[in-house]
Amino acid sequence: MAADDPLCREPLVSVEFEVFGKVQGVYFPKYVRDICLQLGICGWVKNSKTGTILGKMQGPQALVDQM
């Protein structure tokens, strides 16, 4: 990316999250991954041993807020 690209000038934010409820067995991690790829957000998402979804995402504030 060029230095004048707006994405290069906007500071990145990082968010850790945990989702509760019926989120395992319903393709929630795949959905999160697909949306993050569309938005250009980096990170990871996984099922936890306690039945929740854990994740971390990083990107420009506006895109993380949109997610």
UniProtKB/TrEMBL annotation:
Q: Which InterPro entries match?
A: Acylphosphatase, Acylphosphatase-like_dom, Acylphosphatase-like_dom_sf
Give the Gene Ontology MF terms in alphabetical order: acylphosphatase activity
Q: Where is the Acylphosphatase-like domain?
A: 14-67
The family assignment reads: Belongs to the acylphosphatase family.
Query: What is the protein name for this chain?
Result: Acylphosphatase-1
Which source organism does the UniProt entry give?
A: Ooceraea biroi (Clonal raider ant)
